[in-house]
Each structure stands twice: as C-alpha cells, then as structure tokens.
Hints:
The protein is mainly α and about 300 residues long. The chain is about 70% helix and about 5% strand. It has a two-stranded antiparallel ribbon with strand order 1-2.
Amino acid sequence: MRTLISTVLIVLLTVLTPLSAIAAWTDLEIGDSDRFVATTVPLASDPAVRNAVSDRVTDEVMKRIDAGAMEDQVRDLLHSAVLSFTTTDAFKTAWTMVSRAVQNTTERALTSDNDNPVTIDLATVTGEAKRRLGADGVPFADRIPVRHTEITVLRPADLGARIDVVRGLRAAGIWPAVGSLALAAVAVLLPAARYRRRAVLGVGLALAVGAGLLFLCVWAGRGLTLDNLPSGTDRSAAEAVYDALTGSLRTAAWAVLAAGVALAAAAAPWGRIRRPGQSGRPGRPGRRHIRRLSSGVSRGVSRGFTKSL
C-alpha cells in the first residue's frame, strides 16, 4: 500500500512540477516590480521594440499634420529621427518608467476580475522625444503629441478560461513549489527501504517529464499570446517581450530537467554495489545465505540416506 501511494504521488508530481513553476514565476517575476523592470529594461536596446515605438510615435505625429505630396518623405524623416532617439540614454530612462507602468497594469490584470487590457503607455517616451528632437531642430517635432499613446499587448477577455487558470496560479504564489518539494520527499521516504531506490528513480523521471511539460507550456503560451494580439500590434516586438519575460521560466525548466536526470542517474546503480560479505541479492548478508543453503543441502542428504536404509 505504501508503495502504491508513493507511485500515485510521483505521478502527481509530474503534473504539479510545471504548474508550480508557473505559479512561482507569476509571483516572483511578474508580481515583483524591481525584478520585472530588470527583465524588461534591456528591451530598450532590442531593434524590434525600438522600431515598434518609432512606428507608433510617427503614426501619432502624422495624424496631426498635413504634408500633402511630401507625406512619405516627412514620415521617413520623422521615423528616422525618433528611431535615432531610441538609441540614447534618455530613451532608456523613459523606458524604465514605462516598464514599471506595464508591471502595474499586468499585476492588476492578474489579481483582479476586470478585463482591463495590458498596455504600454508611451507618454513618457513621446514627451522626452519631443523635447530632444525639438532641441535638435527636427521638423514637425513640435507636433509630437504628448498624451497617453498606448500599445495594447494583451486583452484578458481574449484568453477566455485560461486567464482564470493564470490568476489562480498567481494567487497560489510559491506554495505549489513548496508542496512539490514536500511531495517528492514523501514519495521517496514512504516506501519500504528495499523499494526506495525505485522511488528515487521515479521522482527523477517525474521531474524530467515535468520539465518537458514546462517547456511545452512556454512554447504553447507563446503561440496563444501572439495569436491573440490586437490588430496593429508589432508581432516582432511582442515576441521580444514574451521571450524576455519567460526567460526565467525556461531557465527553471532546464534546472528541473538537470535535477531530474541527476536523481535518475544516481538511483540507477543504487543497490547494485556489493559490500564485502554480501550475496548477489542486495541487502542480504552473504554468510547467512550460505548458511541457509548449506543447511538445506544437509537435510536433503540426510533424508536421502535414511530412505536408502
């Protein structure tokens, strides 16, 4: 019975491993403002993100001016100027403020029942761009609108029931991960000593399979997120943001996979190593086995001799 319960716990551990990793990720990566900003700030140097910001700012300016036959030339000029601005330290500082705002909207989307979208508000970026480009004498820089220019990256309503699962994992935090460790310990200690090697092997395989499921979840989540992007959203920039935010999840998956393989590899030869004085069967002293075998042979010989008489 104890071995059966251990087996059930190991199967449960396989399923709980990816869920606990995602729950811990939503708490430690998405729920922590400083960690979130540290992850997203490097995106200020990503070409796809820089181009997406330049496109949106340029589009907003072009809505406010009438360049006539020179519209394409004016657009290209403004786009190049804004794109050049995204290489400056001022843009990186503004992007840090944008990242904190995105973390706040994401956290609200995961901890409340409203369907408010997760957006990137470019007001800070456009304000700094207007000031810098105006000082450099760039034409039409004074037309850059300093207002809440938002890029919608996620609508909770588009995820349907999946958003409820993510919210539940966010509420659970790191406790599923703690529970997974406890589950693994119980699964190993519960069986009798002679079956413990198999339990360790099972836990190692469960962790390895769970890591594979976690990789699958990250891959499937990427496709679902990108497929549900609002119209007009730059897909390349969204890919860069998703990959940056889920980088720690992929690292966790590799770590769990390595731990599982190490446990399985350590358990495979366990019990096959013989101590001096042990028989071929693990755990039974060799002398006792020989004594029993000798006693049986002696009794057989004695009975045969008696019958012959």
